[in-house]
Task: structure prediction
Amino acid sequence: MPELPEVETVRRGLEPALKGARLTRVVANRADLRFAFPEGFVQRLTGASVIELKRRAKYLLAPLDRGDTLVMHLGMTGRFDIEGADKQERPGVFHYAAPANPKHAHVVFETDRGCRITFYDPRRFGFMDLIATEAVEAHPWFAKMGPEPLGPEFGAGRLIQMFKGRKQGPKTLLLDQRTVAGLGNIYVCEALHRAHISPLKPSGGVKKAKLKALAVAVKEVLAEAVEAGGSSISDYAGAGGELGYFQHSFRVYDREGEACPTKGCKGTIERIVQAGRSTFFCRVCQT
DNA sequence: CCCACGACCTGTGGGC
DNA sequence: TGCCCACAGGTCGTGG
Result:
């Protein structure tokens, strides 16, 4: 599922169940996800209390009262299901169209508030680690990470700085978490379309006016998606229509062959492959 | 520095 | 129905 809006949606869904809760029981059903769990993973978590649940880019961070921070990444197919008391506080987030396959239930957390949270991840591109809280910022995952796109440190200036003189295409630069942290394939396609920037041209040649539009487009598309509860592509459907429906608002992603939605544009959405990943765009209005 | 590409892993959907 | 291939939201590493 997860780019920034989806991870933020998950964070908001889990927060009522985890914030301030003590982990009374933790089970790891295997020794690794993408990476091996750290030494003593289960023991270090069991009995600890979660101070808060934060997000940085696509990572979830749960600082614990013991000085460690539980760092979690959903990879491509990571998903949390929640059962028990705290589920009621945020209906919708965990109402999936299809039940999770129990064979992919890799980690289970139970809390002192009578809640069970299960992490499922069929492809196991997700991962979890425990990092000393004061060392999180310096950790390689975070040290070179760019600004949060929805925060004040990100704006046209950042894009102008990062795009200057670069031959790489804008998609590559936006997917690079050092430029700005939290975008993935979908929202990059959407932002470039909104800003009318061609994914085929070198980044260094994009005019400043367009980079200003791009910064606005990035913020807008992410904010709208967060507001919609993220996007649900294949395995997940929001309940009650209030969560996880942003996929209906995609202008180009997965819309190959459809008419370009730009006002007055007669183009058709194309799909091409760049760096092994699909790019959806309109070659008429993205120049 | 810049690409293109493959690797990691499993599931799903389309075409035949 | 079954089979095979292409493809999937992310990240990391290699080699030219």
